[in-house]
Amino acid sequence: MQNPSKIMDFIIQKKFKEILHATRQGKLYNFKDELKKELETILSKLNNLDHKKEIVALLQEINNQQSIKDWMN
């Protein structure tokens, strides 16, 4: 499988396209939750431990940002 940064670039591009499509249809789209789901799916398919560590770090960063936002509200 490709390196995690290329995977992330592809996933983010895909999610932004989904946001645009949802916006055009007048629907709400939770980017952070959808990104987390996609990363968790990719994580289960990866075999390389270094790549898994990078994806886990990204997931932790997303969770940390969510908890900081919750704490501030």
UniProtKB/TrEMBL annotation:
<protein>
    <submittedName>
        <fullName>Uncharacterized protein</fullName>
    </submittedName>
</protein>
